[in-house]
Amino acid sequence: MDRSPRVRKTRATALVAACTTGILLVTGCTSSTGGKNAETASNGMVAGRAKTPRMTIAMVTHGVAGDPYWDVVRKGAEAAAAKDNVKLVYSSDPTASNQANLVRNAINQKVDGIAVTLATPDSMRGVLAKAEAAGIPVSAFNQGLDYWKKLGAIGYFGSDEKFAGQMVGNRLNSMGAKHDLCLIHAQGTVALEDRCAGVKSTFKGKTDILYVNGQDMSSVQSTLTAKLRQDPSIDQVTALQATIGTTALSSVKDANSKAKVNTFDLNKDIVSEIKNGSIEFSLDFQPYLQGYLAVDSLWLNKVNGDIIGGGRPTLTGPAFVDKSNIAKVYKYAQNGTR
């Protein structure tokens, strides 16, 4: 490695140039009035705070309050907000019309940017047109891969849900599964429909779809238990959400079924069940990263005119988590960031 004074001087000059742009993005950039330690809002994962003017970003999701998945999304958003000197206003509602009203409220409050999930794109079309007319940039994340451009978002941060389902179908083939039951816990949500459609398109066995009420876990458990008792040929259950996955384990036990369970998404319980072998695998979409990028992209667009992805979606998954890599992921899940 070249340690010559010339090389050291060049590197130092480059660092100084990066730190004088007014956008302090890395830990190596400090000043007499800044260079603060990480904000506590994000488990110490933020290096410092930008010196750009204070701005407000609204994040509006279709998530259910208290759901561990959305807690992770919010942590990522808070980490980006802490770094970017952004006031984050977070709200959520699983009902499409209510989510649209939350976006409308953000527009009326004249926020600087809106990060939104597109679980039901048609319900968001009108209100996002109002955001565009008001000159408020929008980033889409988590759901809406096929719709974000049509609705005027500057970027998309999430996964290709149908492809993720296809990955699961192929995985089930390699496991020798014959009959899969795919659980949709929110009817009409495009991402969930795409996941099961993807499984069905590649799985060589039989795929059935069962609709359950994802807002009532006792109902999910009783509905699934009844189905497993009715059809003992089901040897695999595919849950599309971590909480549904752990509930599915209880149903399998109640029904005295031999079915194995796999799921989408992670939480502390799921990584523990993968570790002990109760759940075969999970597909991880990195919700922390989704929340982080959805906010950070709006800040970068505001202060530097940046567009992340170059007109293409920025994929945060999917990736399998199973016994082969659970040890690496486990500690992050326990920290609440995976």
Write the layout of secondary structure elements.
Blueprint: H1 5-19, E1 55-61, H2 68-84, E2 86-92, H3 96-108, E3 113-116, H4 121-133, E4 138-141, E5 156-158, H5 161-175, E6 179-184, H6 190-202, E7 206-211, H7 217-230, E8 236-239, H8 242-254, E9 260-264, H9 268-276, E10 279-284, H10 287-304, E11 314-315, E12 319-321, H11 326-334
Parallel strand pairs: 1-2, 1-3, 3-4, 4-5, 5-11, 6-7, 6-8, 8-9, 9-10
Antiparallel strand pairs: 10-12
Helix pairs in contact: 2-10, 3-4, 5-6, 7-8, 9-11
Concise overview:
This is Substrate-binding domain-containing protein. This protein is of the alpha/beta class.
Would you give an account of this structure?
It is a single chain. By secondary structure, the chain is an alpha/beta fold. It folds into two domains: 19-159 and 287-307, 3-Layer(aba) Sandwich (Rossmann fold); 161-284 and 323-334, Response regulator (Rossmann fold, 3-Layer(aba) Sandwich). Helices cover 44% and strands 17% of the residues. It has eleven helices and twelve strands. The chain has helices spanning 5-19, 68-84, 96-108, 121-133, 161-175, 190-202, 217-230, 242-254, 268-276, 287-304, 326-334; strands at residues 55-61, 86-92, 113-116, 138-141, 156-158, 179-184, 206-211, 236-239, 260-264, 279-284, 314-315, 319-321. The strands form two sheets. Strands 2-1-3-4-5-11 form a six-stranded parallel sheet, with helices on both faces. The protein has a six-stranded mixed sheet with strand order 7-6-8-9-10-12, sandwiched between helices. Helix 2 packs parallel to helix 10. Residues 1-42 have low confidence and may be disordered.
